[in-house]
Description:
Elements: E1 3-4, H1 5-21, H2 23-33, H3 38-56, H4 66-80, H5 85-99, E2 104-105, H6 107-125, H7 135-150, H8 155-171, H9 196-212
Antiparallel strand pairs: 1-2
Helix pairs in contact: 1-2, 1-3, 1-4, 1-9, 2-3, 2-9, 3-4, 4-5, 5-6, 6-7, 6-8, 7-8, 7-9, 8-9
Amino acid sequence: MTLDVAWADRWTRLSAERIAAARDELTELDRQIGDGDHGENLDRGFRAVVAKLDGSAGEEQPPGQIGDVLKLVATTLMSSVGGASGPLYGTAYLRAAKVTGLQELDAHGVVALLEGALEGITARGKAQVGEKTMVDAWQPAVDAAEAAADAGASTADVLAAAAAAARQGAAATVPLVATKGRASYLGERSAGHQDPGATSTAILLEAARDAATA
């Protein structure tokens, strides 16, 4: 099974629904170690993305490729989301769009999408695994996806592996001491709290997984 532009559209809309449902959770996580606006910012951003998708339906050339949808997500998040999450996620989707300018993705194409997103985040945020950021969810997701694809897994199973690894990675940020971003100002006091960016990463990748089987 390959993934097409309809999957990218479903993923985006499902992401908006899941982020809206998790808005308070993400806000509370961010309140503990950050500015307290992660949930609100992402919710606002994805609502704007869905509005753009809805508006493009009447255009002569709506998004025809997966990369077109991802680029729309990227530019909208960059223009509508404040704080660090807008530029980080915007760059992630933009890099993913550049490597997935196709009408369909196979299992290794999914890996390329996730790798592109991770490269965008690390290029923008300069973070590494272990620093209590969204990279702690993205890196294990990429590693799990690559292993699954190399083992011959389907696109849906590759996304399932990535989503599970991202969720585990988010949970693993709890004992970490933040050394990047706003949370790093707390030093040792940042330990004991789950990183909001890693948590939203898990939510978005779970939406990608579920959109593949919808």
